[in-house]
Amino acid sequence: MRVALLVFLYYIKRNKGGTLLALIAALLLVFIQLQFGIFRKDYSLRIGMVGTYQEHDLPQEVARLISKPLVSALLDGSMEPELLGGWDINNDATEFRFKLKDGLLWSDGSPIKLSEININIPNTEVSFSDEGIIQFKLKEPYSPLPSLLTKPIFKKGSLLGTGPYSVSKVEKSRIFITKITLIPASSDLPTVYIRFYPSEKVAVAGLNLGEVQALLGVTNPNVFEDNPQIEILRKTDFGKIVTLLYNTTDPALSNRSLRQALSFQASIVEGEEVANNPYPPNSWAKDPDAKKFLSNTDEASSALERAKSSLPQEKLKGEFNLTTIPNLERVGEKIISSWKELGLHVNLRTEAGIPQNFQILLITQSIPQDPDQYFLWHSSQGKTNLSKYDSKRVDKDLEDGRKLIPKDERRSKYFDFQKTLLEDAPATFLYFPKYNIVYLKKVESLLDKILEIQNIN
């Protein structure tokens, strides 16, 4: 050891100039590495999504990385505090008092002030107190109000949130975001680059060209099935439901027995989570004994016979039109094939958007986290009650359900709502669709970290 040290000192003495240059070069490389990390192993993830977004309407997959909500929704549709310590409700569900947790900080380290939180709920008076209380006063009773606070919060006029990521850069084309860069607060998380594409076709090309390493929310992942470098993750999305809606004002489809026949005869779509109900299977408001349809030819034949006894023959022998969007065209063909077995003549029409007028519409609808489906089925909701369904009993159940506070009393109303709605069959609830993610196998571990935060995997 002593001999090696003497040799090293002799070398430095004989090569003073070279040693000094080497030392300067080493220090310079250390500085560059610390400043720019050019020799650091790439710890980033490039994600693609389809859609046009602005800062105020970021998709939830992105917003959840940047911030957290005041209230979180559980799998069964119940609500629990997230950034709140809890809340109180008055007896008629017109006043709510929410208490913000103490010591909350924005991601830049600054304390959260109630006045900085942007909360906008129509027909609601919102006030803040110095004690961290948010008070809501409503014109009408509305017990599901906490479910309206499940979106991640941001500081007014900014993209500053409370989550594990901060926005470092936003790139735009005119008013729409094309790319957003997210920097993690923890070294355990990767830097995330999210690119937005105008269409799925362009997004698929982006993945194939290496612009991104993963695509979220792909509607047709089958185009990647033969690629050995790519994995496909399919997860049932219980926030959406694929439904056949019947125009209840149509001369033929106003007949309940005919709608029941179509519902019983409609085939189960293989590989999908069967719905048969307007509520997800894990919802606290779903009645497990509610009426079930789908792939029941005996009940379909009986219902059709009842329809024949109350409808003119020409209405049943005429042609019906099923309208859908391109992504559901194959499902529409399968449904029509099953209906033809009843002797019915049905044409398939494919349109880009939701038509103003239709006989039967095959569509994917979003359903609320809370069981309150007032906007979908109440007769007063002309723009969102697409089937034009009108039932005084259902109206009353939905009105009462949003006024009541105890869960067991609300459940009773929603059980009755399901019973009446399914008996009247203004719609056939087919299945809960898949949320598809395609990604390169090599980034799976990084993607898992992101999906855990987004609560997708």
Break the fold down into its secondary structure elements and pairings.
Blueprint: H1 2-14, H2 16-36, E1 44-50, H3 60-66, E2 71-73, E3 79-81, E4 84-89, E5 95-100, E6 124-128, E7 133-138, E8 165-173, E9 176-184, E10 191-197, H4 200-208, E11 214-218, E12 230-236, E13 240-246, H5 256-265, E14 273-274, H6 297-310, H7 313-317, E15 319-324, H8 329-340, E16 345-350, E17 360-366, H9 374-377, H10 392-401, H11 407-424, E18 427-432, E19 434-440, H12 444-454
Parallel strand pairs: 1-10, 1-11, 15-16, 15-17
Antiparallel strand pairs: 2-3, 4-5, 5-7, 6-7, 8-9, 9-10, 11-19, 12-19, 13-17, 13-18, 14-18
Helix pairs in contact: 5-6, 10-11
Q: Any overview of this molecule?
A:
- This protein has 457 residues and is an alpha+beta fold.
- It contains twelve helices and 19 strands.
- The strands form four sheets. A seven-stranded mixed beta sheet has the order 8-9-10-1-11-19-12.
- The longest helix has 21 residues, at 16-36.
- The radius of gyration is 29 Å and the shape is globular.
Key attributes of the depicted protein:
457 residues; alpha+beta; seven-stranded mixed beta sheet; six-stranded mixed beta sheet; 12 helices
Structure described in brief:
The chain has 457 residues and is an alpha+beta fold. It has helices at 2-14, 16-36, 60-66, 200-208, 256-265, 297-310, 313-317, 329-340, 374-377, 392-401, 407-424, 444-454; strands at 44-50, 71-73, 79-81, 84-89, 95-100, 124-128, 133-138, 165-173, 176-184, 191-197, 214-218, 230-236, 240-246, 273-274, 319-324, 345-350, 360-366, 427-432, 434-440. Helix content is 29%, strand content 25%.
